[in-house]
Each structure stands twice: as C-alpha cells, then as structure tokens.
Amino acid sequence: MKNSSYEIQLRPTVVADLDILFEFQLDPEARHLAAFMSKDSTDKEAYLAKFTKLLADPNINNQTIMADNVIAGSIAKFIMEGDAEITYWIDKPFWGKGVATTALKDFLTLETTRPIFGRVAFDNFGSQKVLENCGFIKVGTDKGFANARQTEIEEFIYRLDR
Q: What is the mean pLDDT of the chain?
C-alpha cells in the first residue's frame, strides 16, 4: 500500500529478520519511547532465543514491515491476559513518514481479531497518533515498570473494535 513516501509491504517475519530487528531496538531514543521492554532486551542471544520461539507460536501474528524492499520494522498481534494486543517497532530513519500508520492499517486487514488493544507510554506522542489514525480509541490508563527507563510510568490503553 502507498500511503507514505515509501511502498509499504508486510510479510511474515522469518528468523533471518531477527538480527536486523534486534539492532533497531538498541537505539536509545527508541528504547525510551517504547519504555516497556524485556529486562534482557540488549542481550542479543536472549533476544534471538525469545523471538525465534515467538515466531513458532500460532497465536502470534508476526509481520516484517518492508519499505521500498528494505526492512523498516516489525508489527505483531499477541495475546496478553486473554486480550489481543498490537505491538510495532519502526526503525528510526522511517519515523514521521507514515510508515507505521500505513503498516498498521495494512496489518489490521490481515489480523481481524477484535477487539484489539494497543498500549503506549504516556509521552510517546508519535505512537499515540499512529493508533488514533488507525481508529483506535483511548479507553484507559495503567501504570507499569518500564525496563527501558528503570521506573514506573503511566501508559495509555487504546482499543479497536471494528
């Protein structure tokens, strides 16, 4: 789909993508905005083991975001406490260019589980805008320990029903 300045395509994530996706999430600014990461997210061996296992889970829909045939990020649906949740990560050079919004809109045509939730740090305005542009409605807040910040922060909870 072409809603950004790039030709965006989604494809199932494969193990070979994980090295690149690992590098994306090492960026300090991106980590701060994502906030809620695993304790060992900078440990490449642990990251590869965790995500290789997740790729085999039939309850998780993992897609790699391609922008002009270059890996630009990832997007996935997973189940947390019985609810379908969305997560995505965009490589920093692609921020603010419509890649996340286009990818999420495309993903929501592939992944039809509803309701589906998105959670975002209170100060991650870019991600809040992406969710809102895709029809998600803010339905609540929560507090949790953000490993990337080493403190408890507020997160906003968004929901999509359609």
A: 95
